[in-house]
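for the writeup, i need someone to sanity check this before i put it in the appendix. the sequnce is what the collaborator sent (i think, or maybe the updated version? ugh). structure was predicted straight from it, no edits. if anything looks off just tell me and ill rerun, i have time this weekend
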Amino acid sequence: MNLRLSGGALAAALLLSACAGGVIPPSAGGPAPGRPTPSGEVATRPAPATPRPTLSVDVPAEPALDTGTAIGLGITRGPDIASLLPSGERSRLALKAFRLSCPSLMRRADQSGLTRGSDWNNACAAASSWPEASASEFFSRYFEAVQVGDGAAFVTGYYEPEIAGSRTRQPGYEIPIYRRPGDLIDVDLGQFSESLKGRSIRGKVQGTKFVPYDERGQIVAGSLAGRGLELAWAADPVEFFFLQVQGSGRLNLPDGGVMRIGYDGQNGRDYTGIGKLMKDRGLIQAGSMQDIMAYLRAHPAEGAAIMNENKSFVFFRELTGPGPLGAMGVPVTPEATVAADPKYMPMGAPVLLSLDRAEPNGIWIAQDTGGAIKGANRFDSFWGAGARARGIAGGMSARGSALILLPVGSAARLTRP
């Protein structure tokens, strides 16, 4: 991501089968599940809510040929949002996150086709000095709502995990966390054939041949040992596996300090969701993150073999600035940032969620993307770090309606009278 597969999206990702062979899988960069100790899972009871109904949509006589963007899918003007916007912390955090997005928002191309960079000038100028105490008034004054497609939203959650780690190898910290190797090479296949434009592979040079890079089992067995690539050391192989799936997190150090690490590449091997393997073999029932972790811990030898069936391996770098960073290159904001599909949602824009679970209801800012976050009205909500964030994000699976908030005046050119 950047944040990629996380929280509820993580559970879904763990159930997915391998990606198409040979092409670099969607990055697993971003926050990852974990905590200082492997016991004491935090369970958070969902707070039910009644979502606002989606807007009725007129079905065109001739369906659009291209439904691969928000414009192609169809836009419906939404209601006045003043009465829909909640006051309080969620709106205040959304205003802070929106400010961070503005510099990029005004200059980046909007893949969704909903906005132009200049559309955001007035809102961003006002946001720079708008008092956070009246954040809801800011959004109601400078934005109007549209619904993309049928407006039916599905929202999962992610968070920045914490696991036990050490900068040096010592008793209790034996699992190497590797930097990106210098011999890991990215190849843009589009340079060789127009038919392969947009596709790439990773591997290494061996003699005169370009070959696949070491898979997880080889790396875990020590194929990279002795090359000075160890960035840090983890205490728990299961926690570290889940951190790799999401791509970044915090290491709680023995001296009480914290080391933040972030995604710095992947070995180019296909990602295999071990949850699906385990369910197919009757090893687990529900397939939740907690179910998977419990089995791996209870059966360490079998668990190690199962984890190695996912040949993908993620490399890391130390993060020293604010973060974690989202796809827009700005730090994601706990309880204000969502990952979205940029083909259906302007990156940096607000979205108003009304779901059957109360915790995520309100305004969020689309500042991230994700390999599992595809399609219209599909969002992954970021909950920060710590036990509460892990508890909410790990079980987040909410449905309801979504309204995209666009700068006042921009919706007129998108919808017919």
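The longest helix spans residues 89-105. The chain is about 25% helix and 25% strand.
thx in advance!!
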